[in-house]
Amino acid sequence: MSxxxxxxxxGGADGGxxxxxxxxxxxxxxxxxxxxxxxxxxxxxxxxxxTLSVLLRWLAGGPIKGDFxxxxxxxxxxxxxxxxxGTIMRANILVDTFTxxxxxxxxxxxxxxxxxxWAGCALVLAERMALGAAEALASGTRTIGLLGVPIWWAIGxxxxxxxxxxxxxxxxxxxxxRGRG
Length: 181
Known about the structure:
There is one protein chain. With 181 residues, this protein is mainly α. It has one domain (27-92, 104-177). It is built from 4 helices and no strands. The longest helix has 36 residues, at 104-139. The radius of gyration is 21 Å and the shape is elongated. The protein starts with 26 loop residues before the first helix and ends with a helix. This is TRAP transporter small permease protein. InterPro entries: DctQ.
């Protein structure tokens, strides 16, 4: 039988902050989950590609053509795919050294502020990446290497991941602002 959770302000691994009992629900949480799943699939694909390329280099004397290009695209997209999920699950680093002893409402206000800052940063990054994707498409920019893969689509997916991250941060901003963090 598991012990009862510690009461608010009792300390613990998260500095006394209560964590949500269950994952958030709704469209933003579902999108974050799907992006994290896609990021996991991309990461698994990169791991398999790397393993196969190393084995072929060892057994057949040569790697998979363009493995570096594919690994860099896949790894970047995997990392971006996890951002929204980490935000919606509040799996980010919380530094509450100075606020741990403050009243919950004040902590919620501080958390709302910083989630709003994170949402703003993610929105700026999403907008910049969307612009970059459009420019990469217009100029025909490709990876530098053996395959020369067009990169506009990867930049566009990164922009979508940042937009979803901003939506997740805004979800928590609203919850904290209502005192329901």
